[in-house]
Each structure stands twice: as structure tokens, then as C-alpha cells.
Amino acid sequence: MAQKDIGNKTPLQTLSSTYQVRQYYDEWAENEKYDRDMVDWNYTGPEEAVRTIIKYAKSKDILIFDAGCGTGLVGKELNKAQYLNIDGADLSQKSLDQITEGIYRRLCRIDLNKPIPIPDNHYDAVVSVGTFTYGHLRPQALDEFLRITKKNGLICFTINEGIFESHGFYEKIHQLALKSSWKAIELFKAEYLASKDVNAWLGLYQVV
Ligand SMILES: C[S@@+](CC[C@H](N)C(=O)[O-])C[C@H]1O[C@@H](n2cnc3c(N)ncnc32)[C@H](O)[C@@H]1O
């Protein structure tokens, strides 16, 4: 999320290490504060991402990886849409601890800016919402998403509009298309966090 979105919290742009990002979300997750803030702020990212996935992932049996699952808001939306085979990963253990049992098959605490400990061509889809923003996941994380996704599988992500061009995301997603690693199915400006005047690009790409 952009600096302007969270006036009551430390601006994301001041977070300079993975350790700080982890602490930031560990604190925010406590007593369900993150989840309550997202309701108060009318955060629509998870809903918009799942609405987009539903249009193209017709089988409900697919195996999905929720990269940067946080407290499980995307998993909840996927479950509502009858997708039940979901694994989740996040940097913040306290966020993972907030997740209601039964939403995900497996959860693990990992740094998604590093190689993901999952074999090649493992998932039918990867979804990553709210993770490509200041100080969070870098564009190179998309290479790992591609590696762990099966051919013809789907990768759905949001990228904060404030960093889309300046932090190399626009270039990265187009390079991957030029290399025929994936092809664009949808790329549009989503409402995301409209109450805080924060938009994000929402992409859905298919692995070639
Ligand atoms: C804005 S939250 C979004 C969480 C969830 N996807 C949602 O939509 O509610 C961003 C998440 O990215 C996670 N994150 C940030 N950097 C990360 C990293 N390097 N590796 C794994 N997760 C990371 C944070 O811990 C946090 O849970």
C-alpha cells in the first residue's frame, strides 16, 4: 500500500529491511487490528483478485498458492468461491497465526524475495495481493511465481500504482511477455483501497 494510505501507521517507504517489514505486520496483525482496519478502509483487493480468477479458473479443484497471504483475506474469498486447495506463505508469523483453521491446506513462513522452497511447475495458480508495494516483494519474485506455476497456469497479482513504473514492475511484466514466459489475460487499474485513494494495477497472466 502506498505511503498516503495509512496515516495512522509508519509510512511503508521508511521500511528499509525485511526485518522491519516483518515487525510491521507482526504488530499490525495483533488483536485482529489488520483485519479490522481492512474492513474500516473498505479494502477490496482480495475480492477483486478472486473475482478476476473466477472468470478464467473454471475448475474448483485447482491447487493455488497465496503468496503473501497475511491474515488470510484472499484465502477467505477463494473459499467463498469454492476453491478449497490453497497453500499460503507469508513473512509475518503473527499474521499467519490469525488465520482461521481450514482455509488453507498448508501455511509457511518464508521470505518471498528469496527462492521459494517449492518444486517447479507445482501450482495451477498463484495469487499475490497487496504484496507488490513499497519495501515488500521485488519484481524478481515474479520469476519464482512463474517457476512454481504449471504451464497454462494463472498468476494473479496487484501492484501498487505508486511503484508500478518507478520500481521496475511495468518493465518486468512486459519483459516476461516479450520472452513469452507468460501472456497477459487482464491488466487493469483496480479500486483496491479506494477509501484511502490508493489504487493498484491488477494483473492476471497465463504461463506459456
Ligand atoms: C498488505 S499485506 C497483504 C496481505 C494479504 N494478501 C491481504 O490481501 O490481506 C502484505 C503482506 O505481504 C507480506 N510480505 C511483505 N514482504 C514479504 C516478503 N519478503 N516475503 C513474504 N511476505 C511478505 C506481509 O507480511 C503482509 O502480510
What CATH calls the topology is: Rossmann fold
Rough outline = globular
Q: Which cofactors or ions or other ligands sit in this model? A: S-adenosylmethionine
Q: How many domains is the backbone divided into?
A: 1
Main β sheet profile: 7 strands, mixed
* CATH superfamily label: Vaccinia Virus protein VP39
Strand content: 25-35%
Which architecture does the CATH hierarchy give at level 2?
3-Layer(aba) Sandwich
| Rg, alpha carbons | 16 Å
Residue ranges: pLDDT <50 for 5 or more in a row? 1-5
Fraction of residues in H or I helices: 25-40%
Number of strands: 7
Instruction: Just give the CATH class.
Output: Alpha Beta
Count the helices. How many?
A: 7
Arithmetic mean of pLDDT? 94
What's a quick, concise take on this entry?
The protein is of the alpha/beta class.
Brief descriptors of the model:
binds S-adenosylmethionine; 208 residues; seven-stranded mixed beta sheet; globular; Rossmann fold; alpha/beta; 7 helices; disordered N terminus; 30% helix; 27% strand
